[in-house]
Amino acid sequence: MKTGVAYAGNMESIVLFGPPGAGKGTQAQRIMDSTGLPQVSTGDMLRAAVSAGTSTGIEAKKFMDAGKLVPDEVIIDLIKDRIKEDDAANGVMFDGFPRTIPQAEALENITTVSHVIAIEVPDGKIVERICGRFTCAKCGAVYHDSFKPTSLDGKCDFCDSEDFKRRADDNADTVMSRLKAYHTQTSPLAEWYDSKGIFFVIDGDREIDKITDDILSALK
Ligand code: AP5
Ligand code: MG
After folding, report:
1. Centre of ligand 1 from the C-alpha of residue 87, in Å
2. pTM summary value
3. Is the pLDDT of residue 62 over 80?
């Protein structure tokens, strides 16, 4: 097990890895302050591009709606641009990137990765997680109808907004395609990163707080 410290200042990035609905976004929001690293979610960047109607968004939308991976070149270009921003100077926390071996190879030329945190959740739990998800439209906080409701009915815990949204790809049919893409195209990365000695497996089928504690321990 690697013993380096991943916290800010050492110019190294970390990767949150796992199937759809594993809790990558949930955990990224909780460990951002401790790590000092900004969350870089390719899914969020693509959804922003779709909303803005950019050429990238228009191309990506057909893949996302079908639960398929967006082509590597599109994703790698997005990351190359994002990593140039000031807040990425000390490294970033990737959420949902890389998802293929070519993306991981490209990343090696972009930044150093110190830890890949794999959040494991059985396939049988994924559909319920995805289909109950909603997020705050203002600050992006992630909730779940049953597992993580807002503390006050209809009001975000963090920013008091009463505006929430659900993702277009959060339906039972698309989830099955996303899971298939994960098992065929993304899970081979586990062995690739394990062989580099930077792969840390966390049981994601537990209470959210316990998972956060284990991730922070793995990063020390
Ligand atoms: P993306 O947005 O990355 O989606 P994803 O990988 O499918 O992951 P999710 O965001 O659905 O899940 P999550 O792990 O973040 O879980 P969350 O914390 O929200 O990608 C979307 C699409 O964009 C892809 O399908 C693809 O088309 C494209 N794309 C993106 N990146 C790409 C790339 N690199 N290459 C190619 N294409 C790319 O939690 C889920 C729910 O569970 C929430 O409701 C939450 O409250 C709840 N929850 C969380 N933790 C727990 C817990 N411990 N117990 C109970 N409930 C929990
Ligand atoms: Mg996410």
Report:
1. 23
2. 0.94
3. yes
